[in-house]
Amino acid sequence: MNDPKISQSLFGPRVRLAPSPTGLFHLGTARTGLFNYLFARKTGGKFILRIEDTDKKRSKKEYEDNILEGLKFLGIEWDEGPGTDGPLGPYRQSERLEIYEKYLRQLLEEGKAYYCFCSPEEIEAQKEEMIARGVPPKYSGKCRDLSKDVVEAYLKEGKPTTIRIKMPNKVIKFEDIIRKEVEFDLSLVGDIVIAKSLKEPLYNFAVVIDDYLMKITHVIRGEDHISNTPKQIAVQEALGLPRPNYAHLPMILGPDRSKLSKRHGAMALTDYRKMGYLSEAIVNFLAFLGWHPIGNEEILGLEELINKFDLERVQKGGAIFNTKRLDWFNSQYLKKMSSEELMDRVVDYLKNFSSTPEIIENYKIDYIKKVVDIELPRMDKLSDLMDSSDFFFKKEIEYPKELLKWKDMTEIELAKSLQDSLNILEKIKEGDFNRINLQIKFYSFIDENPSYAGNKGKLLWPLRAALSGKKASPGPFEIAEVFGKEKSIERLNQALKIIN
């Protein structure tokens, strides 16, 4: 009965992601889902999505929707779960309460679980007393052997209760696919609470029932769950259920190897979408958090990841979350996209995730495309388009006049430089107003004027700064080409007003 290969041979590999809808979908949960999905697709198995929503106070429909939307965005499709009917549902724990009650009653009737009537204050006092004696704190077992008459009397009078499992006094050993043999001494754990009532199961009980009934063969989850595994094995053994295979993924750590936090980048997937990260880049990045294929390839699409994935190659040590590396992945995917696909992503981002959706209404797509084309070499993510190129979408820009100066230019030299640039722009015909002609005209002027010869920055820096209002931006000829003659001249006249 306890051979996990029995269920695997009969039903094929089956894995699951079981998030709680108590908050927004984070990258840590996304990575767990991705590894389960890759394993299922590589082995020809099934990927099941189960919503663990028994926490009535904290579970919200909006969080469940956020989880489903996030998985779809990443291309992680579930074979069974909410919205995808399967034979072993329902796939929300809140819809499975009668199932849990059946197994809770079984444990109670067989004397393998019991009602506990100790108040929270009593539990805390027990723990403090054990700590004072220098022993690991656990439940004392006070209610473990109450007589049937006492239990029935307490229940009849409505005394607050929980349900505890009688934890065996033994060492539990299990083989972890990633960590190899792991063992825990259950005598240090004590009788854990598995339900608040017959209608309110807790995590370590409900997850065992669900995994069994949904024929889960491999439980692939974060290392933070490894301490739950022996407790769940104890529940399995009490019910005579088979044990699935376990694989605990390494923790995701910040660059300083501390627990990942918001200062390191531990944000919701929605936040990353708002910052303009592509789904392909996020998936590629997440796959390399604790795993690496044979070879040196790093840019791998979802299908390539499936083909190369091997659970045995998942590392034991913590996986470092490096935002700069995510930026690098994202920039690579941006640059390898076709112009048409890139513009589709830009338009979708501006409409749905940027703080300036009005750009789509106020500017022609051809104009936005020109901006994207010259900014792409400097873009890591779609939000960079507005962070660095907002000047393309403003009627007027503000900046200190010192920004216009090249090195130690005087204001007289600056005024002359801007006026010279203005004169050159005015002489170029509208039909010839492109970066190549602009470069030819300006460099010819520099060659013909000793004041600029050997120091082209005196002419080109003020021109670029006047057009963009920034210390760093694309070159002045690229900017002027996007603006066109009229807008470029307008910007130079604004600059002249600033210094006069």
Pick out its properties.
47% helix, 500 residues, 12 strands, two-stranded parallel ribbon, single chain, Glutamyl-tRNA Synthetase, domain 2, Arc Repressor Mutant, subunit A, 4-stranded antiparallel β-sheet, elongated
Summarize the structure.
The protein is α/β, with parallel strands linked by helices and 500 residues long. It has helices at 4-11, 27-43, 61-74, 97-109, 120-133, 148-156, 203-213, 229-239, 269-274, 279-287, 302-308, 323-336, 339-352, 358-362, 365-375, 384-389, 411-427, 435-448, 457-468, 476-483, 485-499; strands at residues 14-17, 46-49, 113-116, 162-165, 171-176, 180-185, 193-197, 200-201, 218-222, 245-249, 252-253, 319-320.
Q: Helix and strand layout, with pairings?
A:
Layout: H1 4-11, E1 14-17, H2 27-43, E2 46-49, H3 61-74, H4 97-109, E3 113-116, H5 120-133, H6 148-156, E4 162-165, E5 171-176, E6 180-185, E7 193-197, E8 200-201, H7 203-213, E9 218-222, H8 229-239, E10 245-249, E11 252-253, H9 269-274, H10 279-287, H11 302-308, E12 319-320, H12 323-336, H13 339-352, H14 358-362, H15 365-375, H16 384-389, H17 411-427, H18 435-448, H19 457-468, H20 476-483, H21 485-499
Parallel strand pairs: 1-2, 9-10, 11-12
Antiparallel strand pairs: 3-4, 4-7, 5-6, 7-8
Helix pairs in contact: 2-11, 7-8, 10-12, 17-19, 17-21, 18-20, 19-20, 20-21
Q: Can you offer a commentary on this structure?
A:
By secondary structure, this protein is α/β, with parallel strands linked by helices. Helix content is 47%, strand content 10%. It is built from 21 helices and 12 strands. α8 links the parallel β9 and β10.
